[in-house]
Amino acid sequence: MMIDPLVLLQAYAIGVFPMSDDREAQEVYWIEPKRRAIMPLDGFHISHSLAKTIRQDRFRVTANRDFAGIVDLCAQAAGDRPTTWINREIESAYRHLHEIGFAHSVEVWDGEELVGGLYGVALGRAFFGESMVSRRTDASKVALAWLTARMRFAGFTLLDCQFMTDHLRSLGAIEISQRDYIQLLEGAVDDVPLASGRAVLAGGSGSCAEVAFGRLSGAVAGVEGVSPLPPSFTVSGPASGQDILQLLTQTS
């Protein structure tokens, strides 16, 4: 039985998200961490090697081109991850959220091969990162760098990483209390009309997500002239790696 999309969005809006114990597990349980990992949008750490990879456009980066492929890649077992928390019910729920405009993916390609990326849920000015994956060196780091840059550009205020890992900490993520997280969350979703019930499902993630995850082919309405970046970044793409680095290193 698929998780109701309204219940899922309402859960995110109060700081709760679903997980499972195993890919084949039947149970889904709800998590509310006492300590929360977030990525400050002005605090992404870029190593010299990662900056070089991004600047040289070693990978092609897209948004919402293969959501199902990213979820499937994240759900696969790997040498360092023999199992996954993404069971069939959770996978179906997020694929449905994507279909109605609330779940989004960033894909990283080596030629025509999908080699990494991430997916999550956008609601108002918050993005809730669910999972990321890498099948090439730095592929997931490139995806997170592009996500962070696009979120800064689009006016997001919160990038939720859920649980802290060494990988996230090396990129600039910090850990905060649940109380502090809820304060940030409330400000990020205060304009989302969740009280309207199922009517909210027709509205999609909102204008911030439209700018951040717009199709990488053509202009994004209402963005021209907003950014101090070169014109190549004022359309949905593809933005260059140099543009991404410039936005990530700009101070507020």
TrEMBL record:
<keyword id="KW-0963">Cytoplasm</keyword>
<protein>
    <recommendedName>
        <fullName>Leucyl/phenylalanyl-tRNA--protein transferase</fullName>
        <ecNumber>2.3.2.6</ecNumber>
    </recommendedName>
</protein>
<keyword id="KW-0012">Acyltransferase</keyword>
<dbReference type="InterPro" id="IPR004616">
    <property type="entry name" value="Leu/Phe-tRNA_Trfase"/>
</dbReference>
<comment type="function">
    <text>Functions in the N-end rule pathway of protein degradation where it conjugates Leu, Phe and, less efficiently, Met from aminoacyl-tRNAs to the N-termini of proteins containing an N-terminal arginine or lysine.</text>
</comment>
<dbReference type="GO" id="GO:0005737">
    <property type="term" value="C:cytoplasm"/>
</dbReference>
<keyword id="KW-0808">Transferase</keyword>
<dbReference type="InterPro" id="IPR016181">
    <property type="entry name" value="Acyl_CoA_acyltransferase"/>
</dbReference>
<dbReference type="GO" id="GO:0008914">
    <property type="term" value="F:leucyl-tRNA--protein transferase activity"/>
</dbReference>
<dbReference type="GO" id="GO:0030163">
    <property type="term" value="P:protein catabolic process"/>
</dbReference>
<comment type="similarity">
    <text>Belongs to the L/F-transferase family.</text>
</comment>
<dbReference type="Pfam" id="PF03588">
    <property type="entry name" value="Leu_Phe_trans"/>
</dbReference>
<dbReference type="InterPro" id="IPR042203">
    <property type="entry name" value="Leu/Phe-tRNA_Trfase_C"/>
</dbReference>
